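Protein modeling request. Please complete all fields; requests missing the sequence field cannot be processed.
Requester role: graduate student
Desired output: 3D structure, token encoding
Chains: 1
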Amino acid sequence: MSRTIGLLAAFIAAQVTLAGAAEIKVFSTTGVKSVLEELIPKFEMSSGHKLDVTWSTAALLAKRVESGEQADAVILIKNNVETLLKGGKIVPGTDTLFGQSIFAVGVRAGAPKPDISTPDAFKQSLLAAKGVSYSNPASGGASGVYIAKQIERMGITGQLKDKTKFPPPGGFSGTLLVSGDADIAIQSKPELLSVPGVAIVGPLPGDMAFTVVYAGGVQVGATQADAAKAFVNYLKSPEAQAVFKANGYDPA
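Delivered output (252 residues):
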């Protein structure tokens, strides 16, 4: 009898969990894709919710939200979230900073590491490289836009034009190191580390150093606002923060 009551209680609890489960539509930057792909199953298991994630650059996703597309949660870059918040697209009080990463230089594992100790040394290493990979600035990705500006600042845009290689939109520049299309890649440190066979040389030198801060929020009009808020808050949890740290991110 007690076993029957126990099974019935478990069944009722399961039905309550299912009744409260939601499918959360998420727009997320690929800047945190490797970590979220590890965290999403953990969140789904503990919450009972399911996530439907659209991956792209933060800039392109922010534009989609501004143009009227609807998600429940957005995982973007701090500046994007702040702009959407001011524009009435993010629910006030749900915006959360959860991690940050430096821009870094990478090479294929086992390859000689170029000198990037100073801005001038980095410039000479770029000029000596057979191929240089970074995100296409035309896609609006933070690293691509920033690196293009730094290359222009160094006065070598024309000299690098023919040997600059861009990954697909939302892709990782480190893949072009592994394929042999480039021997220097520049992107956020975690994005470089997410590609097997890539080694980090170090951060961008001197006043070129740059840090990306990641943020999330609940979009105004979300059909699953409570579940979306729970997911955004989860990214600040000790469990999630440990995974971010293990993948090269720093606390925000």
